[in-house]
Each structure stands twice: as structure tokens, then as C-alpha cells.
Design a protein that fits this description.
Blueprint: E1 2-6, H1 19-24, E2 35-38, E3 47-48, H2 56-66, E4 76-83, E5 90-91, H3 95-107, E6 127-131, E7 135-142, H4 145-153, H5 159-167, H6 173-186, H7 190-201, H8 209-221, H9 227-231, E8 234-240, E9 244-247, E10 253-265, E11 271-272, H10 282-288, E12 302-303, E13 308-311, E14 319-323, E15 329-331, E16 337-344, E17 346-349, E18 355-358, E19 363-366, E20 373-375, E21 379-385
Antiparallel strand pairs: 1-3, 1-19, 2-4, 4-10, 5-11, 6-9, 6-10, 7-8, 7-10, 12-13, 13-14, 14-21, 15-20, 16-19, 16-21, 17-18, 17-20
Length: 388
């Protein structure tokens, strides 16, 4: 079975007013359009276009009751994400941390819609994003501490910069970064943050020009936010179209600018670490973050048949296939899937002969018996499915 699904853009303030509209070939709405969700997440379930007038969170359990091979719930959520302004710096828990944290807040009676609530469910939220715009800018993971110390050394000798430098001086890199981020988010006062940001905004450095330019941009969007200084400790990543990063549990990250297709485990669990007016639970954040410096977490696609490739981070929740434009493509599905057109107009056909033509921004749910899925190559299609 192949059935069309759709959803409407979510108007978060950081969304782009043009990127999704341009992808879909329509006039902008005039409002920020941040994300379109394709899945059964109750926060914004997709509409199912089969004449039943149901959303996917209601459609799937009914279908699963009649067909043993179908799950009652998807393990993933697929999105178009359009960042016109930086998202908050954030981290997601592991499955074990989510189970413990959710149970703890439930037992404490914290309302699930409370602004101070950290755990909305008991699931982890690893995620992959693939750039659809020509460039996609992100912060992902903590930079090698030798280079971070060199960046801070370039900021001069203001008192708050000296304090920042002292926090980073410990031989153990992870301990130094933990202490530094704890100080920035929980102990440094507004004047100290402003002094560091002003020093970074006025510094010229050929080696760190992109990082310092981002500091100036973040200061415009989030004046005096301590997350601006946290961002100085992170890897600045600029993806080219078709490149991806994988963000597992514990990795600090923030999407800064651009259009991408994102897939994640079906969860709402987010701990924030700056660049936001929302609640920041510093102690809980420090308990979740992996403070070990690492290179940017790029994820390369692997070939998956004629004209197809898969971004597979090696987890059970999801993998993300890509059927390229320009040649016929063939992809083996690993369970219930969602196909999303992102360029051109591609016709995808299942094993039963059922077919759907997908323009950019259009999507369809594909049941497991339709594997393998083929594309006529007239457009580019991403396919969300369970992982190995």
C-alpha cells in the first residue's frame, strides 16, 4: 500500500519565511516556516489522504489491527527543517537517561506541558540531518580543546576572558569543558558574558574568522545570551548539499541556517544549553552532555542498490534512504517507510505496482510489502524507514 500524507509548516520564530516555500514552488506565507513533520508524532501528526479523514496517529493503530506486519506506531519522525535564525543549543538523552528522567518527573508530579519539564517521554532522540540548501550551517560537538584554547587566547586579556581561559586550562579536556560550560550557564553574570562576547565580536583572526563572525551574528539574534560563548567551544560545521551529520545522545548541537531533511527517533526530549529564552536546567544538562572533544560527527551515505544510498547511523530507530535524480533507482525497504520528494517530480513504485508521483514537499506512507521501491529518476526522493 502507498498512501499520500501531508502536513502544514510549524511557525516557530526561528523558521525561514522562504526556504520551504521555495522548495515547494509556491509563494511564501509571510510567516516563519520552521518545520514540516511527516509521521505520527502526536505533536503534529500527518494527515492521511485515503478518504478516511484521519491523521496518521489514528490511522496506524487501526491499520495495524488488521495487518500484522504493520506497527501501531512509527519509531521515527521525518521532517523538513528550515532555519532562518539559529535554534537553541541542545542535547538529547540516551534511552536509559530518558527512562529514568521521565519516571522521576512523573513521580514528582511535574506537568508534561510545564516550561520546566525536561522529559516529555521516555525515549531517546538521536537524529540525522542532510543538507538540502547549497550550504547548511550547524554547531555539532565540542571542538578539540587545543584549538579552543587558541581561539580564547586570540580574544585578548579582559578579566572575564582571563576567567574563561582559566576554566579551560585543566589538563583533562572533558573536565575543563564541563567546568567551563557549567560556569557560563550557571555562575557567570551578565557583565562577564557581555565582556567575552564583546571581545570576540571585536577580534580579528584569520584562523577563527568564521567562528567570530558567527559570534557577531548570534549576538544580534540573542543579545548577551551565555550560549553565544558556549558556541565558541563547539565545532562549526558547514554542510554542502547532500552532506549529513549524525547527532547521538550527549552531543551538544544547534542548527544555525539552511534547509535540510531531518530524521530522528520519535521523542520530544530536549535539554537546552543557550541561545534561548526557554528554561535551562544546568544541572541536568551537565549530567547528559558528553564533554569529550571530538571532530564534527559527519555521516557518509553508503550505496544501497542502483541509484540509491542510505544514511545509516547503526541504530534500530531509523535509517534514511536517498533515491537520486537522473537515473532509475531501486531501494530495499526495512519496514514501514515514508517517501518525501525534495527535487523534481519523481514517480515511486512499490512491488505491488502501486505508485505515487512526488513533487518537492510531498510525501507518502509505504507499507513493508511494497519493497523494493523504485523511482523513475525524474526527481530526488528521501525515504525514512526503521534502522537495522
Amino acid at each position: 500500500m502507498i498512501v499520500a500524507i501531508s502536513n502544514t509548516p510549524r511557525d516557530y520564530a526561528w523558521g525561514s519565511p522562504t526556504l520551504i516555500a521555495d522548495l515547494e514552488g509556491r509563494e511564501p506565507s509571510g510567516a516563519p516556516e520552521a518545520e514540516i513533520w511527516f509521521g505520527d508524532h502526536p505533536g503534529s501528526p500527518s494527515a492521511v489522504h485515503d478518504g478516511t479523514d484521519r491523521t496518521l496517529d489514528a490511522w496506524l493503530p487501526a491499520a495495524a489491527a488488521a495487518h500484522d506486519e504493520l506497527p501501531a506506531k512509527l519509531p521515527y519522525l521525518l521532517k523538513l527543517l528550515a532555519a532562518g535564525a539559529p535554534l537553541s543549543i541542545q542535547v538529547h538523552p540516551s534511552k536509559e537517561q530518558a527512562v529514568e528522567g521521565f519516571a522521576r518527573e512523573e513521580a514528582a508530579g511535574v506537568p508534561r506541558d510545564a516550561g520546566s519539564r525536561n522529559y516529555k517521554d521516555d525515549n531517546h532522540k538521536p537524529e540525522v540531518i542532510v543538507a538540502l540548501s547549497e550550504t547548511f550551517t550547524a554547531l555539532a560537538g565540542l571542538r578539540d580543546i587545543v584549538r579552543t584554547r587558541a581561539l580564547v587566547d586570540a580574544l585578548g586579556d579582559a578579566p572575564a576572558v582571563r576567567t574563561l581561559r582559566a576554566h579551560l586550562a585543566t589538563d583533562d579536556a572533558a573536565a575543563a569543558l564541563r567546568r567551563t560550560i557549567g560556569w557560563l550557564l550557571g555562575e557567570a553574570d551578565a557583565a562577564e558574558i557581555a565582556q567575552i562576547v564583546d571581545a570576540a565580536a571585536s577580534t580579528d583572526s584569520a584562523e577563527f574568522a568564521a567562528e567570530l563572525e558567527l559570534t557577531r551574528s548570534l549576538h544580534t539574534a540573542y543579545p548577551s545570551d551565555p550560549g553565544i560563548v558556549v558556541a565558541l567551544l563547539m565545532n562549526l560545521v558547514e554542510l554542502r548539499r547532500g552532506e549529513a551529520i549524525f547527532v547521538p545522545a550527549g552531543v551538544l548541537h544547534a542548527y544555525v541556517a539552511g534547509l535540510g531533511v531531518e530524521i530522528m527517533a520519535a521523542s520530544d526530549n530536549v535539554l537546552r544549553g543557550g541561545l534561548t529564552p526557554k528554561h535551562i536546567d544546568v544541572a541536568e544538562l551537565l549530567a547528559l552532555v558528553d564533554f569529550r572533544p571530538a571532530e564534527p560527527p559527519y555521516l557518509r551515505a553508503t550505496p544501497a542498490g542502483e541509484g540509491a544510498e542510505v544514511f545509516a547511523p547503526g541504530i534500530a530507530d531509523f535509517a534514511l534512504g536517498r533515491l537520486g535524480a537522473g537515473e532509475a533507482a531501486n531501494l530495499e525497504l526495512n519496514g514501514i517507510s515514508i517517501a518525501l520528494g525534495v527535487a523534481g517530480s519523481a514517480t515511486v513504485t512499490g512491488a505491488s505496482g502501486a505508485a505515487v508521483t512526488l513533487a518537492p514537499g510531498q510525501a507518502a506512507l509505504i507499507t513493508p510489502e511494497e519493497s523494493p521501491l523504485t523511482s523513475d529518476g525524474a526527481g530526488e526522493v528521501f525515504v525514512a524507514m526503521p534502522g537495522a
